[in-house]
């Protein structure tokens, strides 16, 4: 019998226990199938039925979030809508469905779900922020920016400084840059280090380096042991002309993962910018020893040999 079942005093139910075991292991599709067997069994008690409905919705929600993270917006929406059939008033589920609809270009449908989220919780910061983005995309610039600012003031961890820079971009006539910044912030929930890193990656692709650095810092604050995220932060700081700060991040990345060729290569660039020639060569050589075809290390070492010849 599951621990949850014992806690609530359920009778032994092998199907429910199987479903909970699948859920606890993150096997959400299998969990949904098992919970469906519980829901179709007339002998299951009312408390177990309620929990089966809840965990069915939660399984769909987790699958939807996983799909959304990998860009599968239509599949994500299908899972969110399956969860909403069970719990239509949950603001988090409605917000997730609204995000998926926006990515699919279904603005009317996105507005429907977003309004339901805000009806359930008018002070839901992430829903307010998405409301601002939808308004900005519809050329309601001032109302949109005001809603984004309101959301970030309610919950500064959404990215208040980035929001302020986006507003400055708009005031400077850089509407496209402003929208790219706000849209990247609106894609996912910001309570997860992986999602912060994904937002930062999107900022990088759009050339928004300051914004990318801030999001990578948020990711490292939530998950300090992620060497690859620190390496990306180091790369951004180098691009921003801050090699000393970059080197601090890269040294920590190498402490966590001494076999990271990328971190050694980026450290070599930082040393070169700082005028530490011997340290730079040593870092590039280490990177090349770990990855013989590493493009940065190979190029930089060829440059050094050219100077020496």
Automatic annotation (TrEMBL):
Pfam families: TPR_16, TPR_19
Top-rank taxon, per record: Bacteria
InterPro entries: CellSynth/LPSAsmb/PSIAsmb (IPR051012), TPR-like_helical_dom_sf (IPR011990), TPR_rpt (IPR019734)
SMART domains, per the entry: TPR
Stretches forming TPR repeats: 227-260, 261-294
Keyword ATP-binding: no
Keywords: Repeat, TPR repeat
Keyword Metal-binding: no
PANTHER family on file: LIPOPOLYSACCHARIDE ASSEMBLY PROTEIN B (PTHR45586:SF1), TPR REPEAT-CONTAINING PROTEIN PA4667 (PTHR45586)
UniProt name for this protein: TPR repeat-containing protein
């Amino acid at each position: 019998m599951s621990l949850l079942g014992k806690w609530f005093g359920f009778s032994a139910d092998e199907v429910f226990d199987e479903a909970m075991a699948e859920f606890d292991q993150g096997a959400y599709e299998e969990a949904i199938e098992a919970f469906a067997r519980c829901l179709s069994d007339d002998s299951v008690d009312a408390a177990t039925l309620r929990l089966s409905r809840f965990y069915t919705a939660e399984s769909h929600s987790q699958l939807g979030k996983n799909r959304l993270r990998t860009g599968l917006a239509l599949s994500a929406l299908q899972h969110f809508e399956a969860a909403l059939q069970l719990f239509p008033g949950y603001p988090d589920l409605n917000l997730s469905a609204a995000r998926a609809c926006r990515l699919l270009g279904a603005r009317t449908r996105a507005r429907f779900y977003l309004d339901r989220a805000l009806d359930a919780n008018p002070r839901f910061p992430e829903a307010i922020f998405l409301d601002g983005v939808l308004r900005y995309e519809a050329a309601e610039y001032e109302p949109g920016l005001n809603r984004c600012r309101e959301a970030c003031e309610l919950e500064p961890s959404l990215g208040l400084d980035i929001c302020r820079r986006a507003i400055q971009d708009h005031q400077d006539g850089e509407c496209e840059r402003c929208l790219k910044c706000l849209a990247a912030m609106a894609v996912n929930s910001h309570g997860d280090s992986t999602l912060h890193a994904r937002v930062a990656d999107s900022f990088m692709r759009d050339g928004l380096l300051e914004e990318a650095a801030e999001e990578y810092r948020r990711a490292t604050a939530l998950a300090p042991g992620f060497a690859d995220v620190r390496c990306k932060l180091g790369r951004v700081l180098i691009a921003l002309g801050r090699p000393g700060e970059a080197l601090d991040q890269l040294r920590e990345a190498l402490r966590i993962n001494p076999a990271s060729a990328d971190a050694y290569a980026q450290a070599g660039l930082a040393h070169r910018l700082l005028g530490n020639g011997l340290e730079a060569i040593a870092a590039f050589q280490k990177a090349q020893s770990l990855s013989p075809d590493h493009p940065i290390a190979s190029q930089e070492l060829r440059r050094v040999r050219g100077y020496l010849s």
